[in-house]
Amino acid sequence: MRLIFAGTPEAAVPTLRALAAAGHDIPMVVTRPDAPLGRKRVLTPSPVARAAEELGLPTLKTARLDDDATAELSSLGAQLAVVVAYGGLVREPLLSAPDHGWINLHFSLLPRWRGAAPVQRALIAGDAETGAAVFRLVPELDAGDVYGELRHEIAPHETAADLLATLADSGAGLVVDTVASIADGSAVAAPQEGEPTHAAKLTLDDGRVRWEESAERVLDRHRGVTPEPGSHTTIDGERFKIHEAQAAGDAPALEPGRLAAAPAGVHAGTGDGAVLLTRVQPAGKAAMSAADWFRGLRGDVRLGS
Asked: Over the stretch 3-22, which tens digit does the pLDDT of each residue have?
């Protein structure tokens, strides 16, 4: 098929590569403009822009699909458009410009977790299962009929980065299969069933550990916000980052936020037990092992203070 592809982050790259490898004609790749990254704020192309360049595909870098972008994309004669985490809204008349409209790869089992951060919200909520869905794009947020889905049992160790990478790879195959079925006329899209939930974009406060919650919920939050915006707490009013944490196993009874030395790190008290911190970053310092940090403490320290 003749396809437009729209996407920006690394999670969209497997789908772009898979569609190109399947032999589809991709006259344009739409992605967000180059963004300043790093301490020196160097303008850097998006992962999708870099992949498109490697594949020899033309790109349209735009933050908004405005009238000019709509006119350019509508002139391409695309049969279908595929979007994966582009980061901008597709509105009419562009939504109806391709013969078969637009399809979207979304990293949840719709209608659960419609919105910007489905993987992160599934982890924070403690979901046992998630997945990916390909659906027909409509004006309402993530509400279109679903062509197909895949399911994934969430492992206890998976962070948002781990889970997103897994779903991006497996979801690419789902998109390729969906495009093939649309091309041969066998595709069937079914309405979403169930009560929708909203996956709002994460804020810095979403990464703040609530030590009064259970150990399981503390770890769910930690995994859901790793690597961004990051798991953190406070010590004497200063932000204290938690890079790595895990279930504690046998641990002493500790009040929420209280600490105790452990063979492989530091135990931190929660609402019903403790978690094991293994890598942390105090304010103004580099990341370090939690055990080394704890050995260097002087006086009583409580997390969340």
From this structure: 999 999 999 999 999 999 99
